[in-house]
Write a structure and sequence with these properties.
Low-confidence stretches: 5-33
Order of helices and strands: HEEEEEEHEE
Number of strands: 8
Number of helices: 2
Radius of gyration: 21 Å
Strand order of the largest sheet: 2-3-6
Helix content: 10-25%
């Protein structure tokens, strides 16, 4: 009996610091106004007048899962950062990821501008 009480007390102490987070309420866009905190992507490509990112994908990921933030350095230099705003809870195994693309026109970047990607690129 003493062992059961001691085990219950120890369990309460150990679990007292436990935090459970409901993923549906998680804030995926923290530090949105700064140039830090952008997520890691599999690949990033600025070619012609488009910006493409290859990102992790569980089968449902598309552009609607992200916000693209554009910072203007001057009229011909821009920095872009991609932030995931929703998680993909589908169950498809896709190790290659999904590619999401925006045109310069869609995000207010003039053709021919210099664009720097703020996301970390890593597999």
């Amino acid at each position: 009996m003493k062992f059961q009480i001691a085990s219950a007390a120890l369990g309460a102490v150990l679990l007292g610091g436990c935090v459970i987070i409901d993923a549906d309420d998680a804030d995926f866009t923290s530090d949105w106004d700064s140039k830090s905190g952008f997520g890691t992507v599999f690949a990033a490509d600025v070619a012609g007048d488009t910006i493409s990112f290859t990102v992790s994908d569980n089968g449902c990921t598309d552009r609607g899962f992200f916000d693209l933030r554009v910072f203007s350095e001057d009229e011909d230099e821009f920095e872009v950062g991609l932030k995931r705003t929703r998680q993909d809870y589908c169950k498809v195994y896709n190790p290659e990821g999904a590619t999401v693309t925006w045109s310069f026109q869609e995000v207010g970047i003039p053709n021919g501008a210099e664009v720097t990607v703020l996301n970390r690129v890593r597999r």
